[in-house]
Design goal:
Order of helices and strands of chain B: HHHHHHHHHHHHHHEEH
Radius of gyration of chain B: 20 Å
Helix content of chain A: over 70%
Order of helices and strands of chain A: HHHHEEHHHHEEEEEHEHHHEEHH
Oligomer: heterodimer
Structural class of chain B: mainly alpha
Number of strands of chain B: 2
Distance between the termini of chain A: 55 Å
Structural class of chain A: mainly alpha
Strand order of the largest sheet of chain A: 1-2
Largest sheet of chain A: 2 strands, antiparallel
Radius of gyration of chain A: 23 Å
Shape of chain A: globular
Strand content of chain B: under 5%
Number of helices of chain B: 15
Number of strands of chain A: 10
Strand content of chain A: 5-15%
Chain lengths: 435, 335
């Protein structure tokens, strides 16, 4: 039988892992859709209208699923971690209260947009689509503020196991917010735009609706190029921030066991926690010190600088970090190659190898998003509020959470299958369009 | 400031019950049509609630956020002792929300539509019922020092009174939906007649289940009746709800559908307002006699102040857009 803590953590991980996909789509697809819509309004080219409506219908499925899984999460915080919510609610609730407004507006704009084609003035209608995207991104930024507080708690004094002198404003504007929020938005844009480019490249590769799919790629490609180029910069900023705020997390991400000067960057490999070594890794001298502190001689704290009881699970954190960086690098290279091809006036979309590389990228952005959240969340363990409340102390006392885990895992699995199947039907019809 | 927060909490709850309640009722209605092998009301439902569907359900998120930010101790107790019914609500919310969206956005119209409808209907009843169970538990006692699983996690919500409140909520939602559909723009006369017939059945269902709530309360949970009768505002609200039945029936007869909608909305708001006020300011009562109220164990003042600002700004921004949304999609049916 699973213990309560493991079951609660697993359930939270599954819920977050499920929700994040829908949240990311809900943030970025409205922007793509509005861009296509704008092109239709300006050119009256029917293909852009088809694209707008196509993405709109996909968005409808993702938004609804994301809205309910997000509602479930807001309840789960209390159901699984009542002690945490009792202490943390008054401190980190502020961004949630602002997120509520943003999400409410997002739902209103979505209603206006989805059903407004024949009801609204065309520019008002378009603006409501833009509103969905802006509110979606704003909503995401607020939620990340709450998560950032868990990584970088401030705005209270912890005395005798309780928070006093609470300052919710200071808690909301915590040190991790900016770095987490910017990385979330940039990588969300990368994941979605890479997937959209990839999906339409599949159709292009199959020679289905060539013009329509080229236009779809033309809409999504700028998002992909900008986000793919920004991602390494954004990641670097984020990692430097973690190096200062949560050196233990950085050490886990890198599987960096020993504190040392001129620390090497460890690429790949499998951490052997018992013997405190990494098997099969490539080590690049000085690079970790440079990346973390802009100084090749900087001392980077290793895991040995912290008590073992405070170490997060190394293997998932290290592997997830490697996966995330690898995918970010892959997207960056594709973007650079594509930009160069544009200067050289080479049509890479007609190139079979490049098309296959774009197609391969379809799921990768989402895998990177999941990996990123594993790094953030698992990397913070064993703390639920870093340095203050341990996850084990916050879990619900109600026994049998294992059954809730099975119930909700089954539910999310069912929904994942249903959404995938619906999207399959959606794409099958799209394939036939114009033929 | 705290008073304003409590007011918004009450209003958000009432709005959720009235607006999302009509959506839940639509699902229950759909299920009854499926069971009775009658024509699906899919088009009618989607026309009536489609555009405002998502917005209607945000109220519950507002309620949850106000609770955990402003009243964290109570939220923690509710989450703990009402874990099971709340988990059941979550299952229902998730399934019905997705079933509704899948049915609407599935690009292929085939036999799956019926499956979505079944799922939408069953999960609507399921969620509404468990919501009622949770509402009923607010009139119970919570264990101060539970000695076993049953005392801690079952007893706070399990009992005939709670189950009858669950039924009553289903009835109220169905009643809301029927009244809401009355005014929908349909040229199908047989559909109009059928909705009207069903409306009377739902009125009967409300009366019977409401009676059951009072009956079970009388024998098992007298505090409910004591609080309602003992509070002047609550009993006035109940009496007003009853008196409003006369103009309601008149508006039904005259087919003044928008007047019917407004009256039913007011009635449901009054019922839940009565329930809210009757126990105010008590949030939780423990079996050792101690209580948590809206004014004890609340969040510290700086938190309440920030919540107040967020709600003021939120309400000021959201309300005009929400009104615009309703106007855009309902204006052709305004009296």
């Amino acid at each position: 039988m699973l213990d309560n803590l493991t079951a609660a953590r697993s359930l939270m991980a599954i819920s977050l892992g499920f929700h994040i996909i829908f949240a990311v789509v809900g943030m970025i697809v409205p922007l793509l859709m509005s861009f296509a819509h704008l092109k239709w309004l300006k050119t009256q080219d029917e293909d852009y209208l088809i694209l707008t409506k196509w993405w709109m219908k996909g968005l409808g499925i993702f938004f609804a699923t994301g809205a309910v899984s997000g509602t479930a999460l807001s309840f789960e915080l209390g159901l699984l971690w009542p002690t945490f919510m009792k202490h943390a609610g008054p401190i980190f609730g502020m961004p949630f209260s602002w997120e509520g407004t943003a999400f409410f507006l997002e739902a209103i704009f979505l209603g206006l947009y989805l059903y407004g084609f024949n009801h609204l003035n065309r520019w008002t209608h378009w603006l409501s689509g833009v509103g969905v995207g802006i509110c979606g991104v704003t909503s995401g930024i607020f939620v990340v503020a709450a998560n950032a507080w868990m990584n970088s708690p401030q705005g209270f004094d912890w005395i005798n196991g309780a928070a006093t002198n609470i300052d919710p404003v200071k808690a909301m504007f915590n040190k991790a917010w900016l770095s987490q929020a910017q990385h979330t938005v940039v990588t969300a844009a990368l994941a979605v735009s890479m997937a959209v480019v990839g999906i339409h490249t599949i159709f292009l590769y199959l020679k289905k609706n060539v013009q329509l799919n080229r236009k779809a790629i033309k809409v999504a490609m700028p998002f992909f190029l900008i986000s793919a180029i920004l991602t390494p910069l954004s990641g670097d900023y984020s990692a430097k921030d973690v190096a200062i705020r949560q050196p233990l997390k950085l050490a886990a991400m890198e599987a960096h066991f020993k504190t040392e000067k001129s620390a090497p960057l460890i690429i790949g490999g499998f951490p052997d926690v018992k013997n405190e070594v990494v098997h099969g890794a490539i080590k690049i001298p000085y690079l970790l010190s440079i990346l973390a502190f802009n100084n090749p001689y900087a001392v980077v704290k290793g895991l040995d600088a912290f008590p073992k009881k405070d170490w997060p699970p190394l293997i998932p954190v290290h592997i997830a970090f490697q996966v995330m960086v690898a995918i970010g690098t892959y997207a960056f290279i594709l973007a650079i190659v594509f930009i160069i091809s544009q200067f050289l006036k080479v049509d890479l979309l007609s190139n079979s190898i490049f098309s296959k590389l774009l197609i391969l990228g379809t799921p990768l952005g989402f895998i990177a998003v999941e990996a990123g959240w594993i790094v953030t969340e698992v990397g913070r363990q064993p703390w639920i509020v870093y340095g203050f409340i341990r996850t084990a102390d916050a879990v619900t006392p109600m026994p049998g959470i294992e059954f809730a885990l099975y119930l909700f895992s089954g539910l999310y699995l069912f929904l994942a299958v249903m959404v995938s199947w619906l999207m399959w039907r959606h794409f099958s019809l799209f394939k036939k369009l114009g033929n | 400031m705290l008073e304003f927060v409590i007011l918004v909490l009450a209003i958000a709850l009432i709005f959720y019950v009235v607006f999302a309640g009509a959506d839940f009722g639509a699902g229950i209605y759909e299920l009854l049509c499926l069971i009775g092998k009658r024509r699906s009301r899919k088009e009618l439902i989607e026309k009536a609630i489609g555009p405002i569907w998502e917005a209607n359900h945000i109220w519950i998120i507002i309620v949850v956020v106000i609770f955990f930010m402003g009243f964290p101790t109570s939220f923690s107790h509710f989450s703990n002792h009402l874990h099971i019914p709340m988990a059941m609500i979550l299952v229902g919310i998730t399934l019905r929300g997705t079933a509704f969206a899948f049915r609407h956005y599935d690009p292929v119209i085939d036999h799956w539509q019926k499956r979505y409808s079944w799922l939408f209907g069953i999960s609507s009843v399921w969620t509404a019922f468990w919501q009622g169970v949770v509402v009923g538990s607010l009139f119970g006692v919570f264990p101060a020092t539970p000695s076993n699983f049953y005392e801690a996690y079952i007893a706070p919500w399990f009992g005939f009174f709670n189950l009858s409140v669950g039924l009553f909520i289903c009835a109220i939602y169905l009643f809301l939906a029927h009244t809401f559909f009355l005014g929908e723009d349909t040229t199908d006369e047989s559909l109009k007649r059928s909705i009207k017939r069903d409306l009377w059945k739902s009125v009967l269902f409300v009366i019977i289940s409401g009676g059951l709530v009072f009956l079970t309360s009388f024998f098992l949970r007298p505090i409910f009746i004591e609080r309602i009768v003992g509070n002047k505002l609550s009993i006035s609200a109940v009496l007003m709800t009853t008196l409003l039945l006369f103009p309601l029936f008149w508006s039904y007869k005259k087919s003044y559908t928008n007047i019917s909608r407004v009256i039913v909305g007011i009635q449901v708001a009054l019922i839940f307002g009565a329930v809210f006020i009757s126990s105010f300011p008590v949030l939780l009562t423990f079996d050792n006699g101690t209580q948590i109220t809206y004014f004890t164990e609340t969040a510290p003042e700086p938190t309440i102040r920030q919540l107040f600002y967020a709600l003021i700004v939120g309400v000021s921004i959201v309300l005009p857009f929400l009104v615009a949304l309703y106007r855009v999609f309902k204006r052709e049916r305004l009296v």
